[in-house]
């Protein structure tokens, strides 16, 4: 099982490969705002754990194990972003930071439950509208 730090790297590597077709250490360092030497160390750990295949100076590829986890992590991130939008968080930077803060602390059961709730609201726009109205009115009451 990957550590939270490994998960951050796997998620970012998956996103970079999905977007650009490849992921280099410099791309990962820039995306995560970390030193390239830290990226190299983590890539070596991920390689040892068989999440990536790393060839020095050539870049890396996700193994099927790494791709499966990367895809799951990206999905988890999107679900949590949708949830925060749903409950009224508007600032994109806040949403990103809050998702980064909570995503490693929720188990799969909680993520699945949140996903069900998000899907419920997406498939029931009338209920979603009523919820948004309730939130708007309630916020006026507590000010």
From TrEMBL:
One Pfam family from the record: Fe_dep_repress
Domain HTH dtxR-type: 1-63
Location within or outside the cell: Cytoplasm
Domain of life: Bacteria
InterPro entries tied to this protein: DtxR_MntR_Metal-Reg (IPR050536), Fe_dep_repressor (IPR001367), Fe_dep_repressor_sf (IPR036421), HTH_DTXR (IPR022687), Iron_dep_repressor (IPR022689), WH-like_DNA-bd_sf (IPR036388), WH_DNA-bd_sf (IPR036390)
Subunit structure: Homodimer.
Family label: Belongs to the DtxR/MntR family.
Protein name listed in UniProt: Manganese transport regulator
